[in-house]
Specification:
Number of helices: 12
CATH topology of the largest domain: Rossmann fold
Largest sheet: 7 strands, parallel
Helix content: 25-40%
Strand order of the largest sheet: 8-7-6-9-10-11-12
CATH superfamily of the largest domain: NAD(P)-binding Rossmann-like Domain
Shape: globular
Structural class: alpha/beta
Bound molecules: glyoxylic acid
Number of domains: 2
């Protein structure tokens, strides 16, 4: 009799490029609802599984691992970020964790730039103006935004996506590049003439501040009222990384009070924002629903890596993109 296929839970329908292979190789239970499984359901579904394909909407912690049981070998996260997973706890239990880097780098940097230019040049506010039937004539004093050419971009977190954003700003708009990161990036300094600076200098000098940092205990809430106060009144803040990097009520107050000019966000805290949150109603805040990796090639690439990670982990082999290898 053939060996039983390993049981896995897949917490959402992902592109066929990865999903079909998981279904073929595993006894796969796929959650096909548009909304995430409720917590209790998730904990029930993972019981007895050897592998789980998770999304950033699932909290993968000690309770999750306890519910799954000791046979759990691998959690494959369909995302480059893994702040939803307690990595230390997974490592302690010998559970491999995978993620999906690289394939979404350019798509995410494109979205960061799209948000930057949309916020700086008031594109969405202009569209609302038309949709509301308020456009009557060409206005010499209306809809004035910020220039981009040869301005200064401040990159917070010069990893793969930060570098891709900096390349766009430097190569396309001849911007001066400042960056803040725990590590110096020789590549950014040599290729883009980027300058490594302290956070205060970056905030004070940059016309645009784009955050590409991991979310962790050090970075959580780093964009708060004090930080926004240090920025130029003409500055545009862009966040395509994780919502909790900014304090949402402080961002609201900075935008409403004119501390900064505008913001472009692909992420909020929470997601989606509470219906009572006034931030999305501000004309100088452009918000997309966490779609930076939503291109055909990025999402297919993510699905392929996530499937590889899951299947390799089930076989006890090194993952293609292995977060807790060391
Ligand atoms: C999306 O936010 C990701 O981390 O891939």
């Amino acid at each position: 009799m053939a060996d039983a296929k390993p049981r896995v839970f897949v917490t959402r329908e992902i592109p066929a490029a990865g999903l079909d292979r998981m279904i073929e190789a595993c006894d796969a239970d796929v959650w096909r609802e548009p909304l995430p499984p409720p917590r209790e359901t998730l904990l029930e579904k993972v019981r007895g599984c050897e592998g789980v394909l998770s999304l950033l909407t699932e909290k993968v912690d000690a309770e999750f691992f306890d519910a799954a049981g000791p046979q759990l070998k691998v959690v494959s996260n369909f995302a480059v970020g893994f702040n939803n997973i307690d990595i230390a706890e997974a490592t302690r239990r010998g559970i491999r964790v995978g993620n999906t880097p690289d394939v979404l780098t350019d798509a995410t940097a494109d979205m960061a730039f799209a948000l930057l230019i949309a916020a700086a040049r008031r594109v969405v506010e202009g569209q609302d103006y038309i949709r509301d039937g308020r456009w009557k004539t060409w206005e010499p004093l209306g809809h004035v935004g910020q220039d981009l050419w040869e301005r200064t971009i401040g990159i917070v977190g010069m990893g793969r996506i930060g570098m891709a954003m900096a390349r766009r700003c430097r190569g396309g708009w001849n911007m001066r590049v400042l960056y803040h990161d725990r590590y110096r990036s020789e590549k950014a300094e040599q290729e883009l003439d980027a300058r490594h600076v302290e956070m205060d200098e970056l905030l004070a000098e940059s016309d645009f501040v784009s955050v590409h940092a991991d979310l962790n205990d050090t970075t959580r809430g780093m964009f708060n009222a004090a930080a926004f106060k240090k920025m130029k009144k003409t500055a545009v803040f862009v966040n395509t990384a994780r919502g909790p990097l900014h304090v949402q009520s402080d961002l609201h107050d900075a935008l409403a009070g004119g501390e900064i000019f505008a913001a472009g966000l692909d992420v909020t805290d929470p997601e989606p924002p509470e219906l009572s949150d006034p931030l999305p109603t501000l004309p100088n805040c452009v918000i997309a629903p966490h779609i930076a990796s939503a291109t055909v090639s990025s999402r297919n690439g993510m699905a392929e890596i996530a499937a590889d990670n899951l299947l390799l982990g089930l076989e006890g082999k090194p993952l293609r993109c292995w977060v807790n290898r060391d």
